[in-house]
Amino acid sequence: MKTRFSLLVIISLLLIGCKSKNTIAIMMIEKEIQFNANKEKVWGLLTNPTITKQYMYGCEVISDWEVESLILWKGQTEDGKEVTYVKGKIVECKKGELVTFTMFDPNMEIEDIPENYLSLTYDLKEKNNKTILKLTQGNFATVALGEKRYKESLKGWEMVIPIMKQIVEK
Fold it and tell me: pLDDT for 20-35, tens place per residue?
């Protein structure tokens, strides 16, 4: 009887999702996209401002791709005013293979503090002249307006990924 009760308690805790105060929620976007192109061409898609402007809502990515360097996503408003839509810093970079950077939208009405920055990683692997891009973005669970930002980013990636494929595979 006691064993059965213990088993029921354990199952109940598992079903409820027992969490301690130290548990940190995780809300990440993870995508794997296969391109019919070599790694060099996909790297250019991700890092060349002229190309990013074609798929990332008219924004050019600006960076020298060195660790600790600034990364900016700049575009123009409908009336031609230049705007920085995203800013951050390069955290890790192996040119042609992998880059991780922080990101923050300075136009959102949230505090510009490190706790509100997300990270985005592009990781490229090539096989048989095809490239797999693994992108990882988050953690949305730990930033202000996390759920809203998560949903907007997810929707954004769903819109731009087909355009990215079209550009790099033509």
Answer: 445 568 999 999 999 9
Q: What is the pLDDT of residues 6-24, one digit of tens each?
A: 444 444 333 344 444 455 6
Contacts 24+ apart (CB under 8 A), 162-167: 163/54, 163/55, 164/33, 164/35, 164/45, 164/55, 165/33, 165/35, 167/45, 167/51, 167/54, 167/55
Q: Please indicate, yes or no, if residue 6 is contained in any of the structural domains.
A: no
Question: Is 105 in contact with 86 (CB distance < 8 Å)?
Answer: yes
Q: What is the CATH number of the domain that holds 103?
A: 3.30.530.20
Domain membership flag for residue 85: yes
Per-residue pLDDT at 10 = 43
Residue 160 has a CB neighbour count (10 Å cut-off) of 16
Residue-range definition of the domain harbouring residue 40 = 21-169
| Number of domains the chain is built from | 1
Q: Which stretches of the chain drop beneath a pLDDT of 50?
A: 5-21
Cα angle 59-72-48, degrees, rounded to a multiple of 5: 60
- Cβ neighbors of 105 (< 8 A, separation 6 or more) are 85, 86
10 found inside a domain: no
Angstrom distance (rounded) from CA 155 to CA 157: 6
Q: What is the pLDDT of residue 124?
A: 98
